[in-house]
Amino acid sequence: MTNEHLIHPLTRSIENVRMELNDSVSVYSLNSEYVLELSQKLDSLLNQYENLSNNP
């Protein structure tokens, strides 16, 4: 069984957080707590994606 059923929703989450991060940077400073939290969330999602992609 592949991880495709997990990867698809994860890619949507990654894209949503990425867009939110891009939008937030224009409003908040790069070192604001909110931007840092979004960045960490995106990192975590990307790590999950990589793990799923490498372990079919």
TrEMBL record:
Pfam families: SpoOE-like. SUPFAM superfamilies: BAS1536-like. Residues 13-56 form the V-SNARE coiled-coil homology domain. This is V-SNARE coiled-coil homology domain-containing protein. It comes from Shouchella xiaoxiensis.
